[in-house]
Predict the 3D structure of the following.
Amino acid sequence: MMRKISSGTIQQVDKTKPRNKCRKWRLCVHVDNKRRSKRFTGSVTDAKAALEEWKAELSKRPADGLTVAQYAMRWCDYREQSGQYSANTDAATRCRLEAWSKSPIGDMPLSEVRPADIEEAMLWVRDNAPKVGRLSGTSMSGHWATLRSMFRHAEAAGLVDKDPMVHVKPPKRDTKEREALSPLELELLLNRLDAMPVDGHVVAVYLMACLGLRRGEALGLMLEDVHDGMVHVHRSMSARTHKIGAVKTAAGVRTLPMPQRLVAKLKEWAAAREAQGIADAPTVCCMANGRPIIAASMHYWWKTHRDDLGCGGMVMHQLRHSNLTMMARALPSAFDLQRWAGWSDIGPARIYIHEDMDALVAAAASVLAETPRKRATGDENRR
């Protein structure tokens, strides 16, 4: 069945300028007797051409439109093919949209979804998570954000008149933040690891605790990336595909100096690998058979041993937070912390840089103590 597309009009948004000088327009068209519009920036000639292109695009779409489930999977495919996001992000997005597709809005036409429908679907998604039962507010916040992104894309593409998510409040985050390990607790963790037989899992935890590496970065580290007391981070293992590729962003590529304790542990691990006949295994963190350790195996090992390591209830990523909290006090500036952590911008550094009055007092005393001496020296030189 063909769609009914009106001839359409272009409306001038900026009324202060003559028509031939205006660069802001609203394209309007009726599709199956429903009015649709979208903004356009350009000359009046360009606006007319854009209107015709939009009408041609709308005429090719089926009259009944795509359902939420159909569009969700197409949108996931588009995101993955674009290569703009990491494999882990793509996997998380697809998983969340699969949940929405199974909810009451899954079979609804995309253009007919209303805020009330989404609110009803949110309750379904929250209460029907597989293997979990009921999702937390923090998890639901992530599901809400993914659906919001999808509807924004649909609105920009002209598939919906208006994003219904604008009128749906996001769930409140309710997951209690876990505290980072103190430097003393971090040292006790390393002592407990030293008491265990060294293997690839122990070394991975060592890397995360001593250098603040992400799990994927620790598991993707190759032997050739560690030399001369330095760790060169430029690879990461995908939790979904288990493939080792580039780190998530260019800022994640960094070179970190190893503390002596980590150097000693890696030497111990090298000797153990030699004895086990897996010295040539390519990854630093490998199994007893030389194969790389995957994320699921690392997760299971951590859940099994974390209580004995004094980290009960902590997720593995908290090791990175613990290291960054400690390094925030040791590094000279927030910019150094940014480079150490591999962040694209300095914003996250604010999480780790806390008020330290003792440090401020010491810095002020140092500056004030130096000033008179420098002035005196300067006076003597002038004489």
About this structure: The longest strand covers residues 24-31. Residues 183-352 form a domain with the hpI Integrase; Chain A fold (CATH 1.10.443.10). The radius of gyration is 28 Å. The chain has four domains: 9-59, 68-167, 183-352, 354-383.
